[in-house]
Amino acid sequence: MVSAGRDAFASVSTIHTRAAAPSGRAAAPHVRTVGDATATFHFVGQVEGMAYPSLSPAQQETFMAEFCREAASILQWSRQENWPSPPVDLQVFVSDEYKISQSLVPASIGKRGRMEFPAWKAIASEAAVAHELVHVYFPNGNRLLAEGLAIYLQDKIGGSPVFPNFGTPLHAMVRELAREMVPEFVGGKAETLERIRIGELDKIATPSPLRLRVGRYLYENTPSGQAHVYPIAGSFVQFLIETYGVDRFRVLFERTPLVVFERNVGSPERWIDVYGLSLSDLERQWRVMIAGGLS
């Protein structure tokens, strides 16, 4: 984990917290400053049809503090890498009703800044806050690039080990998963990984979920499917950034901006324009790296 730095954390502070509402009534939201914008937290829930906060007051404070630290880290990274994003006011909902965390799909339908987290993940410090903040600050129309960057930054500068790799280095996790997805890979030969086709992921536009067929098995939008596909996306983006640099990756990323109610995966030629190599060539390099055991 990379420290957010004192200057970054200073920009994320409390501006006001309203008193908790009486039992049985919806609790008032809490507001924090996040960079040049605000984050409004809603700890919503119901029990037997009655409004009932999803987290206790102490848990709410812990989650908001963790959230602000994650935001400071992402904002500092964006400044360091000259990857600016306009200020976005955040509406953060934490509830037992949510099964997954999300912010990219809301952004794709014109609700950029809406973030949803399952209450149990917030309580257990397993909410992928940095991941979802990346989707808010740097949304993308290509789902491979959108998820890949979010997974990479969550792994590099996120505060907690969370889904999909829970602290395991992404390349090492892909190597482990590859032995399950491609049994022939046991010998560690790069050519046996050709059934894991990054090119198929590059055809998926936001908001469609990432899914990948490997042989006769389809890894789709289920917890198990995401647990296999998301590390691949994160590992490939890590390879691009750490091999060819973040500046070149940003150029590629900017070729497929997220446009509300549109789908934009980008032209296959953009890979050659940016890297001087086709996606197939880059895939091949990535497979050699994975097979070679590089972390």
Brief summary of the model shown:
By secondary structure, the protein is an alpha/beta fold. It is built from 12 helices and 9 strands. It has 2 domains: 6-138, Elastase, domain 1, CATH 3.10.170; 170-291, no CATH class.
Whole-number total of structural domains? 2
Low-confidence stretches: 1-22
Per the CATH scheme, the topology name of the largest domain is Elastase, domain 1
Q: Kindly name the structural category.
A: alpha/beta
Q: Strand arrangement, largest sheet? A: 1-2-3-6-7
Which terms summarize this structure?
globular; 295 residues; two-stranded antiparallel sheet; alpha/beta; 2 domains; disordered N terminus; Elastase, domain 1
Description of the structure:
Helix 5 crosses helix 6 and helix 6 crosses helix 9. The protein has two domains: 6-138, Elastase, domain 1; 170-291, no CATH class. It is globular and about 60 Å long. It has helices at 6-10, 57-80, 104-108, 119-123, 129-137, 143-157, 170-181, 198-201, 223-244, 246-253, 269-275, 279-291; strands at residues 14-17, 30-34, 37-43, 46-47, 50-51, 90-95, 114-118, 212-214, 217-219. Strands 1-2-3-6-7 form a five-stranded mixed β-sheet. Strands 4-5 form a two-stranded antiparallel sheet. With 295 residues, the protein is α/β, with parallel strands linked by helices. It contains twelve helices and nine strands.
Which SSEs are present, and which pair or pack?
Layout: H1 6-10, E1 14-17, E2 30-34, E3 37-43, E4 46-47, E5 50-51, H2 57-80, E6 90-95, H3 104-108, E7 114-118, H4 119-123, H5 129-137, H6 143-157, H7 170-181, H8 198-201, E8 212-214, E9 217-219, H9 223-244, H10 246-253, H11 269-275, H12 279-291
Parallel strand pairs: 3-6, 6-7
Antiparallel strand pairs: 1-2, 2-3, 4-5, 8-9
